[in-house]
Structure formats: structure tokens, C-alpha cells
Amino acid sequence: MAALEEEFTLSSVVLSAGPEGLLGVEQSDKTDQFLVTDSGRTVILYKLSAEVYRILSVQGTEPLVLFKEGAVRGLEALLADPQQKIETVISDEEVIKWTKFFVVFRHPVLIFITEKHGNYFAYVQMFNSRILTKYTLLLGQDENSVIKSFTASVDRKFISLMSLSSDGCIYETLIPIRPADPEKNQSLVKSLLLKAVVSGNARNGVALTALDQDHVAVLGSPLAASKECLSVWNIKFQTLQTSKELPQGTSGQLWYYGEHLFMLHGKSLTVIPYKCEVSSLAGALGKLKHSQDPGTHVVSHFVNWETPQGCGLGFQNSEQSRRILRRRKIEVSLQPEVPPSKQLLSTIMKDSEKHIEVEVRKFLALKQTPDFHTVIGDTVTGLLERCKAEPSFYPRNCLMQLIQTHVLSYSLCPDLMEIALKKKDVQLLQLCLQQFPDIPESVTCACLKIFLSIGDDSLQETDVNMESVFDYSINSVHDEKMEEQTEILQNGFNPEEDKCNNCDQELNKKPQDETKESTSCPVVQKRAALLNAILHSAYSETFLLPHLKDIPAQHITLFLKYLYFLYLKCSENATMTLPGIHPPTLNQIMDWICLLLDANFTVVVMMPEAKRLLINLYKLVKSQISVYSELNKIEVSFRELQKLNQEKNNRGLYSIEVLELF
Length: 662
Fold this sequence. Notes:
It is built from 19 helices and 23 strands. By secondary structure, it is an alpha+beta fold.
């Protein structure tokens, strides 16, 4: 349970603060004093040789100076030598957007985020080892999103970087404190943490700050037309804990120190005290019973375990209390640490899907151990067993992360694709087809049925890997040229007069809209990406054909139209290949056309809507036969030329030869 208390004004903000608002709020050495800096007043301490981005400080450590080029210096060392050379760390046009200073294991750690052409990067500076690690932050499917605000929290192994995106959602990225390869530029994937906490098209700025490991504070408008609010969310249970309307508007800046939130409200710097209790389901739902009055304060007591009676509450003197706490810390540290693998296996049996996803990402970010393959297999098995026992439990994000480890196969977890087929999870099925080399033909056909039958509206709401799909948009001029080339040249060869006069007559009578139908993709791009995964899958023709007969004829016709479209696209260039990162090959396209016709020809030939498609396929095969026939004739001539080349060794240094080909 979280609560925002009565606000009070710390100071008035003069107009010289400028359009950017305040430059920063920092806590001084005393807990009840804060340093506020605006752009209207400037104190010049010394001349630097490079532009300073920000001066950062944490209690008990030396202040750090972060330069705009990414270099970091201690303030004392910089004051001792102000003219020292400052190196450039980040690349050209890379701009620092946000920074945070931590203390981990009594060692300072600095993280700063940069942006360049819409791409975001994270730099982590470890000062105990002088290691600077760079990470690329992947934006996922929505590459056009813009990150509005950052915040972070830290534990023993990870920095939890949270970002508030332009779509109004909060995402989380886990950054390891001790990377496996510090010198390598690694990529990090974000995961959805909270959905639609603020309006995506908010007029004013938005801000985000982490209060503890379970709570975040968000500054912004929850709806496009509503006023700005300060809200506290429980990220563990995905619930809104409290909110406070700010009618005078804010600058979109939010700071947090101790149990106080600082923001610009109108022309005043406002402080709002808050309290966050230990996160629990009852507290998240607002069902905790409070025995105290709302205005009372909680006073902590120590339990006197060393009294002769063995029980009782009482105040301890400070020295005795410190001895008790010190002894308890030693006892806890002596207990053996639970291995991450066992901790993960125990987590998947009882915790929520969100918590399991976080633990899986933490485990995968660690350095691989000898039992890594075994742990991954046991984890998937445990998740699938729980899916069967609890129908509402379906951790698809965890399963997708585990599949992408390249450790699993169909034989290790056959229930995985069975559950995905029941859920009609086409994204997970596509990933399995791309990763598993041993999928049975019956399962491949089951995936094909779903890919062909699922509606276009459902596909639009699904995230699908589009790497194998190219741009299908074709202008009308190109359509006409392509159709003319198909009728006249036929794969670069002008055949003899067609012996199937009836087929030619019917093909030439087709209307204009049917002409465009053959040169435009018959399926949407997301369905095309799913069908491409089928084309890439391994199979045995003997075992595949019986299952292809169970697919409805209208779906077979749709698949044949798509394959014919891919063949036409291959015919556009001399290499007979499709554009894209991992497109289907010509052999895969032709093999699947043959498979579908062998299994369903007697059914498809009776369908009136498939008549023109079959005629096109007939002409396609006939043109291929003509091309190969001419190539066989040329092959004989090349053999004779090869024999003549072998006899050249018996001739002199110079000769004139005349070759006649018949």
C-alpha cells in the first residue's frame, strides 16, 4: 500500500528558470537539506577543458563530473588539474539523455543513456575496476517509439532500467552489473512492465522515478484530455496505489530523495511526502487492516531476545542494538547461498507470470554454467506441467525467451507446441518452426492449418517475426510489365507455339482485375511470414503427404496462390532469388507446389475458383520444361568444345581455329 501525504511548497521558482525548468535537485550531506539549481543563476568554480553534462553525488562518495562526450572524472582530481585532457567516449551525434549514480557493494557505479538517430545505448562505468561497458537497447517491435523518461534501481546482480515510452507504457531492461564480456557491445531486450500508465499523446512532459523495487511514481496525464497527475504504481502486482491531481500543471520533471517527491507545480517547487509499505497482494488491493489512526507515526522497536524471560518488547541502548544486528548479519552471511538454478526452479512452481519472467531474464543474463542445458530443459518442463494443471497460467514470454537459447528441441519438450496449438499462439509456433529441427510432419501440418485459417484481424494484433518478408507493394506500371513478360518471354525463353490452345484462349480472356490478382500478394504480410516458416521447415515427403490431404481445399488454393506469387517474384531477377534477410528459396517454393498438387489435385481441380490458378501453374511447368530442353541441347555443344580445349596442348604457340555448331 502506498500513500501520498499533504504537499508543501519548498520555494518559489523565478521566471529565469527558463523553458527547461530546473536543472536538478540534489540532496546535501544533511538529510533535511537539498540543493536546487536553475538556469538563471550560475556559479563558476573553475574553467574546464570540455563541456560538463552534470555533476553527480551520493552520500559517502566523492562527487563525479560527467562530460557531454561521456568521460567521467572525480571532482577533486578535476579541481586539482582543471586543464587536463578529457577523452571522447561516445560517438559523434550521440547525445546523453539521462544518468544515475549508484553505490553497489560500497563501490560507485555510474550509468548514463545516450541517443543517436532514434537508437538508444546504455553505458555502465564500474569505478572499482575502471570498466566501461556499452549496451544497445533494443526497442522491440515498435521501433518508432520514443523514450520520454528513464529511471533505475539496483540490486546485487542487476541494474533494473525502466523507461516510459511514447506509447504510455513502462518497459524494463535488466543490465548485469558484472558482464560476461565487458569489451563487447551487447544488446539488451526490453520487456513490458506496465501498460498505458499515461496518455501516449500527452501535451506536457512526463516523468518516471523508481521508489523501491516494487513501486514507481509517474508524472503525467492518464488521459489525453485530463489534467496532470502524480501516481504511484505497484509494478509487482500491476496495480495503481494512489494518485494526486496537479491542476496548475508541471514541467514534466520529478525527483525523489528519501521519502519525498520533488516537482514543479505551477511556479513553485512542491514537495510531496509519501509512504510505501512492504509489497503484498493485500496491500496492492488496498485490503490491509490499519489499527492506527491515519495521522499517527510508526515508531520502530527492537525485540529484546536476551532478557531472562526470553520475550518482551523494550527499547535497547544503541550499542547493544548494533551488536545484535551485527551478529544477525554474520549469521545470515554464513548461510549457504541458494544456486540460481534451484532458485529459478522453485520460482516457476508458485510465483506469478511476471515474477517468473523477471527471474528467467536474470538467469539467462548470468554466465552459463555446465548444467545450463539441463536447467533450461527442467524449467520448460516445469512451466508446461503447471500450464496443464492451471489452464489460466500461460507464461508465453518466458517460453519464448527459453526457446531463443537454442538449447531446446521438439523431442525435449513435445508438449510445448501442443499447448501453443491449443492456444493458437502463432508467434510461438513460428519461433518453434524456426528453432526446432525435429518437428514431426503432423505438427507442421497442424501449424499450417492454423496459419491459413486464422483471421486477418487476429493477425494484426499479433507480433510476428517479419525478417523473411519483403515489401509487397508494387506499382501498376510494374504489374503490366511483369504480366507482359510472363506471357511473352516466359522465364527468358520464347517457346514455340503453345499446344494447349484452349488454355491460351481462356488465359487471354481474363479481365484486368484478375491480371492484377496474379501479381499482387494474396495474403497479408504477417500471414506470409508465418507461411515462410512452413517453407523453411524440414520434412519427409512420405510422411508429409497424408497430412496435407486433411487441409481444406480453399486453404490449399490460398497457399498455392501465395506460392505462385513467390515464383513470379523470383522470376523478376536473374538470380531467381527473393529479397529479404531469410526468404524462401526457389527450390522450396517449387517443392511445396508439387507437394500440394500431389496431395490435393483431385479436389482442387473441381473448384471453379482454382481453375485459373491451375492454368497458370500448367504454363509455369511447361515453360520450365522448354527451358531445360534447350539447355540440354546446348550442353551437347559445350561437351564438344570441352574436347577441343583438351586437344590444344598438341598445337603450337599460335593457331587460328574455326568452330561450326550445328
